[in-house]
Write a structure and sequence with these properties.
Elements (H helix, E strand, L loop, with lengths): L3 E8 L3 H13 L4 E5 L2 E6 L2 E8 L2 E8 L2 H18 L11 E2 L11 E12 L2 E7 L13 E6 L11 E2 L5 E2 L8 E11 L4 E7 L6 H8 L5 E8 L8 E6 L4 H9 L7 E7 L14 E7 L11 H6 L10 E8 H14 L6 E8 L5 H14 L1
Parallel strand pairs: 15-16, 15-18, 16-17, 18-19
Antiparallel strand pairs: 1-5, 1-6, 2-3, 3-4, 4-5, 7-8, 7-14, 8-13, 9-12, 9-14, 10-11, 12-13
Helix pairs in contact: 1-2
């Protein structure tokens, strides 16, 4: 089926105990699993893996149409074999065939800062250039992970895929900080994109990078992910500063006939920015004024005041806010959204008092509990 292939035989005390959970997990990530006599076939990302469990070993043979698909499938198999191996079983993985040289992950791009632009007192746009960025142009997956090198490092050190197919991270002192951001603008033909950063007084890695960014700086990028724009008869967007780049990008890509409303909360009038949107989309800015971000939000109250007629148009609700506003809007949306008609994405982008890493860990724990 392909021009590239790789094989490995992994010593495992209980290969069947690894193969089952591996297949179950990959099914959750859009893999197709086919059981054939004596082997299991996994189809994922354009590639195919054939796995045979024997006495004390797991044999894996992979075929893929290109190097990116081959490396992705090698990593998916290798990382989950390691993850699901019973305690005390430490798999040693050595691939033969194509793709043995250590390389950047296939979805990873190295970008160069070309210029910066101050949009408002607390919002800065960073313009970047890179090769082969078409995969990031989708409006259905707006978010990327940025890899921000330590500021005192002479040369960035990026995560690499080793010859075993596993991701190798730089040493802690060289390791980039990883933060999620939204692509605000992208021009695939020109190889350029822009990302907006909220500037904080208590700057984390992302805000600190944006404050000091200069032309020539390098950042890494992987993705895309998340969920974005859907087709609907009416659109309702709610966000604070953290969701503003995503809303701005979606608004300017709506069809000219689109109808709806965008409710955007910022500190004050000085933080408003021009947004392109169809004539049928009303944009309302909500100002916190003296109230700190996260302490109180007008978005929850504004959402409660919206009309949601039972026989109204099919609606897409997209909301990204601080955690308390998210909880209110999510609860209210469950009461108002019409099953089988309306679509929604209601998410918490941050939580007052927690770092991004702490908030991400909290959300993962809640998802596992659910």
């Amino acid at each position: 089926m392909s021009s590239l292939s790789a094989e490995t035989t992994i010593a495992l005390a209980q290969p069947d105990a690894v193969l089952g959970p591996l297949c179950d997990h990959l099914l959750e990530h859009d893999a197709q699993i086919r059981r054939e006599p004596g082997e299991t076939v996994i189809l994922l990302g354009g590639g195919q893996a054939r796995l045979r469990a024997g006495e004390g070993l797991l044999a894996v043979a992979i075929e893929a149409p290109d190097l990116a698909a081959l490396q992705n499938l090698k990593r998916a198999i290798a990382s989950h074999v390691v993850e699901f191996a019973p305690a005390g079983d430490k798999p040693v993985i050595g691939w033969s065939g194509d793709g043995q040289v250590a390389s950047l992950p296939p979805e990873f791009r190295v970008l160069t800062v070309t210029s910066t632009e101050q949009l408002s007192p607390h919002m800065k746009r960073i313009h970047l250039r890179g090769d082969d960025i078409a995969r990031y142009a989708s409006l259905e997956a707006l978010h990327v992970r940025l890899f921000l090198p330590p500021p005192d490092l002479a040369e960035p050190v990026w995560p690499m895929l080793g010859s075993d197919g596993l991701l190798q991270l730089p040493s802690p002192e060289q390791r980039p900080a990883v933060r999620k951001y939204t692509i605000r603008q992208i021009d695939v033909a020109a190889g350029t994109l822009a990302i907006d950063f909220v500037l904080h007084d208590d700057a984390g890695p992302g805000s600190a990078f944006a404050a000091r960014a200069r032309a020539g700086d390098l950042v890494g990028m992987a993705g895309p992910g998340g969920r974005g724009l859907k087709t609907a008869e009416r659109y309702v967007f709610l966000c604070d500063e953290t969701g503003l780049p995503a809303v701005g990008r979606m608004l300017e890509n709506l069809p000219t006939s689109a109808q709806g409303l965008a409710l955007i909360e910022v500190a004050n009038a000085g933080e408003e920015q021009p947004l392109a949107a169809p004539a049928g989309i009303s944009i309302r800015w909500l100002h916190r004024e003296a109230l700190p971000a996260g302490q109180a939000s007008g978005l929850a109250e504004a959402f409660d005041a919206l009309t949601w007629d039972a026989d109204g148009p099919e609606t897409y609700l997209w909301s990204a806010t601080e955690n308390e506003a998210f909880r209110h809007i999510r609860s209210a949306a469950r009461q108002r959204l019409r099953t089988g008609l309306d679509q929604h994405l209601v998410v918490s982008y941050w939580r007052a008092g927690l770092s991004e890493d702490q908030h991400a860990a909290e959300k993962k724990a809640a998802a596992r509990a659910a």
